[in-house]
């Protein structure tokens, strides 16, 4: 009897196939997910063929030091913003040998909400040499639920980008 794949495992397998088909590698830059996307990707045997590296940049200093996100951009927009998510994705692409990069930044809770950015606000951005795209998510649930939903959405956007 075959073991059923979880949705995350299925998404990672599909992503792996799409990246391999293009000869691409992936880099991730994660804040609120703390490496969940990288962990999901590297849980698949053979992921070294297509997963290049992951950055866990939880602090603003790490975003600046490791990804090149300008401190002025962080000060002007806050870490949970479209501008910073895009800068993180561009930085992951620039500081790796990947052809596709993903960034995740958000407020998983239970604390951290600010006016206009409630708990569950998450920005995803993904970048290739052709450019960068971003999407704001408003996720519900506790910290674990927000992080899991961000992971699922990130994998879906990566698969779309790898197939484009």
How big a fraction of the residues is strand?
15-25%
Total helices: the number is 6
| CATH topology name | Maf protein
What is the CATH class name? Alpha Beta
Write down the secondary-structure element order: HEHEHHHEEEH
Please write out the topology.
Elements lengths: L6 H16 L3 E5 L5 H7 L8 E6 L3 H8 L3 H7 L4 H13 L5 E7 L14 E8 L2 E8 L4 H21 L1
Parallel strand pairs: 1-2, 1-3
Antiparallel strand pairs: 3-4, 4-5
Helix pairs in contact: 1-6
Provide an overview of this structure.
The protein has 164 residues and is α/β, with parallel strands linked by helices. It has a single domain, classed as Maf protein (Alpha-Beta Complex), CATH 3.90.950. 44% of the residues lie in helices and 21% in strands. It contains 6 helices and 5 strands; from the N terminus they run H-E-H-E-H-H-H-E-E-E-H. The chain has a 5-stranded mixed β-sheet with strand order 2-1-3-4-5, with helices on both faces. A hairpin with a 2-residue loop joins strand 4 (121-128) and strand 5. The N and C termini lie far apart (35 Å).
């Amino acid at each position: 009897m075959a073991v059923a794949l979880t949705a995350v495992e299925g998404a990672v397998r599909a992503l792996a196939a799409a990246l391999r088909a293009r000869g691409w590698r992936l880099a991730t830059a994660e804040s609120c997910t703390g490496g969940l996307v990288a962990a999901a990707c590297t849980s698949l045997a053979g992921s070294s063929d297509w997963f290049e590296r992951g950055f866990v940049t939880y602090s603003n200093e790490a975003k600046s030091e490791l990804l090149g996100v300008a401190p002025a951009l962080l000060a002007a927009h806050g870490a949970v913003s479209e501008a910073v998510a895009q800068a993180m994705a561009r930085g992951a692409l620039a500081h790796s040998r990947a052809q596709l990069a993903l960034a995740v930044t958000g407020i998983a809770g239970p604390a951290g909400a600010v006016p206009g950015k409630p708990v569950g606000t998450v920005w995803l951005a993904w970048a290739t040499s052709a450019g960068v795209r971003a999407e704001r998510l408003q996720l519900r649930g506790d910290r674990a639920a927000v992080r899991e939903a961000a992971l699922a959405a990130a994998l879906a956007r990566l698969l779309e980008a790898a197939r484009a």
